[in-house]
């Protein structure tokens, strides 16, 4: 394979790699894009006080949601605890009633036996 | 540090749009992508305008960001250059005969087949006519790496070009 001299090749590259012209509407579209971006409210373009107020509101919202969640969870736990307590009391009442009944029957049986 | 230079955004776009677009086009080999990159680069410039200290700094910044955005885009889209260059020439309305020689016409296509670091170094060397030191500063790469990329890229491109020329001569 024969190579042309490096200097010639160097020059050829310089001639071949001239800049392409930019598309004719590139600048127009760019300026349009830029204008649209500037019209959009930018967070850092807002006054510092507004940014602080918005941040605090968001923080308060998050904390309220968090507190609400915790409170709801605690209430649910309490409701379940109360339900379990009522069930235990009912079971104790039933047991008590059964024992009373058995006691009465034993007393009656004893009396009959003595007579 | 305060600086006296007052940038004019529109003027910067006028002056450098061809450079940014050409860098992106030669790096990606995709005209549509190159336009997108050029838009992104100039919109980013708009945001950073306050930090640009001089016209030379603006030019340096634009080159650096154009190359880095093109490399990012290439990595994202894994563009295979060779097949896309056909589209570029058709779309761009630059007929093959307008270039100085058959070899010259194909050099751009052959460039797109080089590895990305070598392509970046060669584009900055021959399109922007930067010195290896300036290329190293633009690419934020060690000078030795840039010199090596330039040498390897040039050697590879020359070999490919010679090969292509032989095929062309055989075809006549």
What does the model show?
The complex is a heterodimer of chains A (115) and B (172). Chain A is an all-alpha fold. Helices cover 80% and strands 0% of the residues of chain A. Chain A is rod-shaped, with a radius of gyration of 45 Å. The model of chain A has no long low-confidence stretch (mean pLDDT 89). Chain B has helices at residues 9-28, 31-48, 55-77, 81-92, 102-111, 116-126, 132-139, 143-171. The longest helix of chain B is centred in the last third of the chain and has 29 residues, at 143-171. Chain B folds into two domains: 1-94, Rna Polymerase Sigma Factor, Chain: A (Orthogonal Bundle); 98-172, Arc Repressor Mutant, subunit A (Orthogonal Bundle). Chain B is mostly helical and 172 residues long. Classes of the chains: A mainly alpha (115), B mainly alpha (172). At the A-B interface, α1 and α2 of A face α1, α2, α5, α6 and α8 of B.
Which features would summarize this protein structure in a list?
A: mainly alpha, 3 helices, B: mainly alpha, Rna Polymerase Sigma Factor, Chain: A, Arc Repressor Mutant, subunit A, 8 helices, 0% strand
Secondary structure blueprint with pairings:
The complex is a heterodimer of chains A (115) and B (172).
Chain A: H1 6-16, H2 26-39, H3 48-114
Chain B: H1 9-28, H2 31-48, H3 55-77, H4 81-92, H5 102-111, H6 116-126, H7 132-139, H8 143-171
In short:
The complex is a heterodimer of chains A (115) and B (172). Helices cover 80% and strands 0% of the residues of chain A.
Helix % of chain B is: over 70%
- On the 0 to 100 scale, the average pLDDT of chain A is 89
Sequence of secondary-structure elements of chain A: HHH
Oligomer: heterodimer
What is the helix tally of chain B? 8
Q: How many separate domains make up the residues of chain B?
A: 2
Share in β-strands of chain B:
under 5%
Task: List the uncertain runs of chain B.
Answer: 85-100
The proportion of strand residues of chain A reads: under 5%
